[in-house]
Write a structure and sequence with these properties.
The complex is a heterodimer of chains A (279) and B (118). Chain A is of the alpha/beta class and 279 residues long. Helices cover 35% and strands 22% of the residues of chain A. Chain A has a single domain, classed as LigB-like (Protocatechuate 4,5-dioxygenase, Chain B), CATH 3.40.830.10. Chain A has an eight-stranded mixed sheet, sandwiched between helices. In chain A, strands 4-5 form a two-stranded antiparallel sheet. Classes of the chains: A alpha/beta (279), B mainly alpha (118).
Chain lengths: 279, 118
């Protein structure tokens, strides 16, 4: 049977990808951010997961408003990125795992999460940047299952719904018959706002509270509305709902193995968390 | 209802991209979505008017595009994720558009972000 090796949450800012491409990891601006990642890389080297379920939000690369699913699962043999309109480098494709994807789809729909399924799916920086941080050097040591959550078009799924999706995802992984180690990676956040006269909004106190609660009391975060999250974390700070999907997949009690928080990366307060199920 | 437009609009300086804005901004966002493709960006740059006409932009949207005015683009129904593909054509990143929207220099905008750490 499959085992859920752990959960990782990380920010996914496109500027990180550019900094990696330019070799700026030791630059004064970037060093305090990149310094957070070696412990998680070492954990991944020790744990050697076979597959990663990556919960992220598409920023208008794969999905447009003509047809925008709330939750979509990739079921492709491989996934390609694109320049997203800004000339981002196109990278080596990411291997998929259609068998695991379809198991998760079957399990989620049986569990009353009626997800969209994608046999072709372009993946954006929210999928690629975290992998560049966790497995540097364009290595592709894990097969991937993308899980896209709508954060473009309101109404967005509530934090409570995202946590429940995570719980259903955890049940799907636990019932996978293959002997695989699977890690769930959630990307996005923490507080930031790109648009409007309030652009540049960051809320350190709220972020630090989220980092505490997501570990020990995630139910507390499920009581926020999307409106609350926009007000407290910024228009794009709602991305913390992806973190709730990851947390839902883990057990009620978890061990926190690593935490990092840094302001700013571009417009964003960057967060990183590594959790394992408590025995 | 907690998530009605009326209550969402009470967050100052914040645009919630709901159904009403999605309807209003559809043509503009569709054009911006097309900029995922480099050939479309080149076509826009060759003849901006023709490209905007192809997508049926409103006069308000056309003016906002002409002026590269992000707040006006948001008011015209633009969604920031698609708009970023438009501003990217001119080499403007999120810190540039942050400065433009808040009426400060890019350095002042970056300094404000750094100050949020304390």
């Amino acid at each position: 049977m499959a085992t859920l090796a752990g959960g990782i949450c990380t920010s996914h800012i496109p500027a990180i990808g550019n900094a990696i491409a330019r070799g700026l990891e030791d630059d004064a601006y970037w060093q305090p951010f990149f310094a957070g990642y070696p412990p998680v890389r070492e954990w991944l080297e020790r744990t050697r997961p076979d597959a990663a379920v990556i919960v992220y939000n598409d920023h208008g690369l794969n999905f447009f408003l003509d047809n925008l699913p709330t939750f979509a699962i990739g079921a492709a043999p491989e996934y390609h990125n694109a320049d997203e309109g800004w000339g981002l480098p196109t990278l080596a494709p990411y291997p998929g795992d259609p068998k695991l994807s379809w198991h998760i789809i079957e399990s989620l729909v049986a569990d009353e999460f009626d997800v969209a399924t994608c046999q072709e799916m372009r993946v954006d920086h929210a999928f690629t940047v975290p992998q560049a941080l966790l497995w540097p050097g364009e290595r592709r040591p894990v097969k991937t299952v993308p899980v896209a959550v709508n954060t473009v078009q309101h109404p967005l799924p509530t934090p409570a719904r995202c946590f429940k999706l995570g719980q259903a995802l955890g049940r799907a992984i636990a019932s996978y018959p293959d002997n695989q180690r699977i890690v769930v990676i959630a990307t996005g956040g923490l507080s930031h706002q790109l648009d409007g006269e309030r652009a540049g909004f960051i809320n350190k106190d709220f972020d630090l509270m989220c980092l505490e609660k997501i570990v020990a009391d995630p139910q507390a975060l499920t009581r926020y509305s999307i409106r609350d999250l926009v007000r407290l974390a910024g228009t794009q700070g709602v991305e913390v709902i992806m973190w709730l999907v990851m947390r839902g997949a883990l057990s009620a009690r978890v061990r926190e193995l690593h935490r990092h928080y840094h302001i700013p990366v571009s417009n964003t307060a960057a967060g990183l968390l590594l959790l394992e199920n408590a025995a | 209802m907690a998530n009605t437009r009326a209550t969402l609009d009470t967050i100052p300086g914040t645009y919630i991209f709901d159904g009403a804005l999605a309807i209003k901004g559809y043509a503009l966002n569709k054009m911006c979505y097309s900029f995922n493709d480099a050939a479309n960006r080149a076509e826009f740059q060759r003849d901006e008017d023709a490209y905007c006409n192809k997508f049926g932009l409103s006069a308000e949207q056309r003016d906002a595009v002409r002026n590269r005015d992000v707040l006006a683009l948001l008011a015209a129904g633009g969604n920031v994720y698609y708009l970023a593909k438009f501003t990217g054509i001119f080499g403007l990143g999120v810190q540039d558009i942050g400065a433009q929207q808040t009426g400060v220099s890019v350095d002042a905008f970056k300094a404000k972000l750094k100050a949020a750490a304390h």
